[in-house]
Amino acid sequence: MRLDTLLAHVRQVLANAGIADHRSEARKLTLETLSIEPSSWLSDPDQAVDEAMCRTVMERANRLAEGVPLHRLLGWREFHGLHLRLSAETLEPRDDTEALVELGVAALRGHDEREGVRILDLGTGTGAVALALLAELPEAHALGVDLSEEALRIAERNAAINKLERRFSTQQADWFDGLDGLFDLIVSNPPYIESNAIEELDRTVRDHDPHLALDGGVDGLAAYRAIAAEAAAYLRPGGVVAVEIGRGQADDVEHIFAKSGLHRGDIRRDMNGILRALLFKTSG
Ligand SMILES: C[S@@+](CC[C@H](N)C(=O)[O-])C[C@H]1O[C@@H](n2cnc3c(N)ncnc32)[C@H](O)[C@@H]1O
Predict the structure, then answer these.
(1) Euclidean distance between CA atoms 24 and 43, whole angstroms
(2) How confident is the model at residue 211 (pLDDT cuts 50, 70, 90)?
(3) CA of 91 relative to ligand 1 center, distance in Å
(4) What is the reported pLDDT for 112?
(5) What pLDDT does residue 113 have?
């Protein structure tokens, strides 16, 4: 089959399923599955695609139409310019999390990098946040922690894919349990959805992101309580904590950290204007 004909079939399947941006989703799914660069498609839209690959593309198109997210099908996505592999046990990193990365980079700017900046990423998943920070801060080192062993395996693989493995290590832990050392930045995008609200999430999230990455307990705030309770004991002098929050959680999270003597500093909004990342300091 010709590439443009295949693309037309994929577009039709996605349009029939009511996928709003079916044109761009069809293009990404088809070209990524076939490992064809957009420039190659544009210069030779009639190039031949073998039958087996056509079948693979159409199978994926049908699964996309059934609600499987595009990047789950591809098995990877880009975040902060990094190529990140995904697995069933890792959250698919979201663009909203760029706000947390930006806040973390701003907090560490001005640090004397020669002292060896140390970052702790709690609930690292694919390693998205830690690896994005390492990409921005060439002298920093990061420890990625997760309860999921499989997530840590993926995070290590992602560090290697992005040539950051020399400065990235992992440890399986329940938040701070069993951790040693002090850090300049403790960063976390923890699970923050209320347990009862998970069933109401869009099926592309509910059925494909791991519940361990979503479930924040009865009020969605359990992870913030666990992190706030111990964070100060793991900070170097002048160290800070940066967390991502869900919509409308800012006041509650600020209150939780204040009880542990950590006071709110800088903030960041996501691209929809929602308050998404908060910084906490031990004083002022
Ligand atoms: C919302 S995901 C964030 C993943 C990644 N940091 C990102 O931003 O894309 C939360 C992560 O916390 C991990 N997690 C959940 N409970 C945990 C716990 N008690 N201790 C350590 N990690 C935990 C999950 O496995 C998941 O990887």
Answers:
(1) 18
(2) very high
(3) 8
(4) 62
(5) 63
Phi and psi at residue 170, to the nearest 5°: -130, 160
Rounded Cα distance between 63 and 56, Å, is 11
- Is 73 exposed, middle or buried, given 0-12, 13-18 or 19+ CB atoms closer than 10 A? middle
Closest ligand 1 atom to the C-alpha of 121?
A: 6
- How many residues appear in the chain? 284
Separation of 191 CA from ligand 1 center, angstroms? Answer: 6
- Spell out the SS3 assignment of 77-141: EEECCEEEECCCCCCCCCHHHHHHHHHHHHHHCCCCHHHCCEEEEECCCCCHHHHHHHHHCCCCE
Q: How far is the CA of 72 from the centre of ligand 1 (A)?
A: 18
Q: Give the sign of the dihedral formed by CA 254, CA 259, CA 262, CA 265.
A: positive
Nearest CA to ligand 1 atom 24: 213
CA torsion angle for 169, 174, 240, 248 (degrees, to 10)? Answer: 120
Q: Which of ligand 1's atoms lies nearest the C-alpha of 148?
A: 25
Does pLDDT of 284 surpass 60?
A: no
Quick count: other Cβ atoms within 10 Å of Cβ 109?
Answer: 10
- Is the pLDDT at 98 greater than 90, yes or no? yes
Nearest CA to ligand 1 atom 9: 93
Taking the CA atoms of the chain, what radius of gyration do you get in angstroms? 21
Calculate what percentage of the chain has a pLDDT beyond 70. 98
| 127 Cα to the center of ligand 1, angstroms | 10
pLDDT at 116: 86
Ligand 1, residues at Cβ distance < 6 Å: 91, 93, 97, 123-126, 128-129, 145-148, 151, 174-175, 189-191, 212-213
